């Protein structure tokens, strides 16, 4: 029986290994982690991450050929194939701080593999890493290899949160990079055989190690660039009376451009787009390519601009101050169908409003009060370290309250900000919300989920990203 061990039981390691176990009954899969709480949760009825469809798959396989354990060394020792899916956060100190990837967790995993292994291993980079990481890992593993043969493969993950199970079951492609040696090719074939249990052969593509590593960073940069492009156009739409949804539809009808990923928003969030672009920028700078670095930096600058533009709209519309005003925030996760808040635009928007002394009441169907308080108190980039190593803030921000009900959150509010596109926000009783709010009642839709005309009929003053402006807002220009 082939044995797989995955180091890192997070958003990638957990779902990816669950699907491998589900599709490959002949393979034993063990997911290990240094976080005891995380492993306990994987072994309980309350999984540590919310992902549609995940619970069913885990329940089918757990205890059969899928296991979760904190005994990292034992399972690494026994495995034939080791996936490494640990955090690769942005460095906050020292050389490359604010841009370069922090490979501390990767390096410690590699050193542990080297220490405990007694048989040949295929080590798979599942985390997103800088180009050439495989070379560094190879050096760590082979420095004192005691005759053990290690093959390093790059097998980046392209799943998106909220749709992870579908993405894993039916991927656009699986990418495997390896050394172009006989041993390298053999290792690539072994990993191909795993995916071939359910992925059509023509969707499993192979490449050299550096192409595979770079393709992941490039794919995320291209995706984020589309959002910054449409968000940049959204600002121009507001200035000219064009409607960004109509523009995106017309642009996306060109088959060379395509319709996906053109939704204007308050800004992209999530654990990877910003981190991976910063990483790409750093690699370009290190390779003497400042023009290329500046090109990609602009994707992040537009994203920051979009978030501050939104805050400025809120404040400017409400007579240039939100001091002492109550603002309801609907949605805190970085996108719908996930409880993940890493790098969510809601953090920047809330911090901006708090900076102007607002009182905020928040509702998100999947995010707890504890998580929101941690997020608002945390320093930039700290969110991307293992949970038990993140600094805890001793005090909660008292101007922020969190409820489990959208009507409760909006009661008595002067304005409502929609920051995540949860489907349930489309079906809320806005008449009821209006009646319980202060007047004039404002809605700022950062995800274009509500119909502005219908809400205006109720009496709301409505701002929707990239849509023709409410007459009220036209007279109150917001400077970004
Ligand atoms: N979240 C996503 O949708 C995607 C993430 N990625 C990449 O995958 C990697 C992991 O991301 P996530 O799963 O989101 O992170 P995560 O934070 O959810 O999971 C990482 C896990 O690794 C554990 N860990 C860290 N060091 C360890 C060690 N030395 N030994 C054992 N366990 C260790 C942590 O405790 C944590 O549970 C990152 O490089 C990320 O860029 C790639 C594609 C999608
Ligand atoms: O490397 C990663 O971590 C992953 O990053 C993204 O996945 P994810 O961040 O989970 O979610 P996305 O659906 O890409 O959304 C990212 C952000 O962009 C925003 N977005 C997305 C699409 C769009 O049209 N407009 C828009 O503002 C979302 O609301 C969200 O805040 C990529 O889509 C995955 O392919 C990749 O594997």
UniProtKB/TrEMBL annotation:
Q: Which reaction does it catalyse?
A: UDP-alpha-D-glucose + 2 NAD(+) + H2O = UDP-alpha-D-glucuronate + 2 NADH + 3 H(+)
Residues given in the record as NAD(+) binding sites: 8-13, 33, 38, 86-90, 127-128, 161, 272-275, 342
Pathway membership of this protein?
Nucleotide-sugar biosynthesis; UDP-alpha-D-glucuronate biosynthesis; UDP-alpha-D-glucuronate from UDP-alpha-D-glucose: step 1/1
SUPFAM superfamilies for this protein? 6-phosphogluconate dehydrogenase C-terminal domain-like, NAD(P)-binding Rossmann-fold domains, UDP-glucose/GDP-mannose dehydrogenase C-terminal domain
Where's the active site on this chain? 272 (nucleophile)
Query: How is this protein named in the record?
Result: UDP-glucose 6-dehydrogenase
Q: Name one Pfam family in it.
A: UDPG_MGDP_dh_N
Task: Kindly list the GO CC terms recorded for this protein.
Answer: nucleus
* Record family assignment: Belongs to the UDP-glucose/GDP-mannose dehydrogenase family.
Tell me the Gene Ontology biological-process terms attached to this UniProt entry.
Answer: glycosaminoglycan biosynthetic process; UDP-glucuronate biosynthetic process
Asked if Signal is a keyword of the record, the answer is no
Which InterPro entries does the protein's record reference? 6-PGluconate_DH-like_C_sf, NAD(P)-bd_dom_sf, UDP-Glc/GDP-Man, UDP-Glc/GDP-Man_DH_C, UDP-Glc/GDP-Man_DH_C_sf, UDP-Glc/GDP-Man_DH_dimer, UDP-Glc/GDP-Man_DH_N, UDPglc_DH_euk
Question: What function is annotated for this protein?
Answer: Involved in the biosynthesis of UDP-glucuronic acid (UDP-GlcA), providing nucleotide sugars for cell-wall polymers.
Residue limits of the UDP-glucose/GDP-mannose dehydrogenase C-terminal domain? Answer: 328-452
EC number(s)? 1.1.1.22
Which organism is the protein's source? Phoenix dactylifera
**PANTHER family, per the entry:** UDP-GLUCOSE 6-DEHYDROGENASE (PTHR11374:SF3), UDP-GLUCOSE DEHYDROGENASE/UDP-MANNAC DEHYDROGENASE (PTHR11374)
Keywords of the record: NAD, Oxidoreductase
Name the lineage.
Answer: Eukaryota, Viridiplantae, Streptophyta, Embryophyta, Tracheophyta
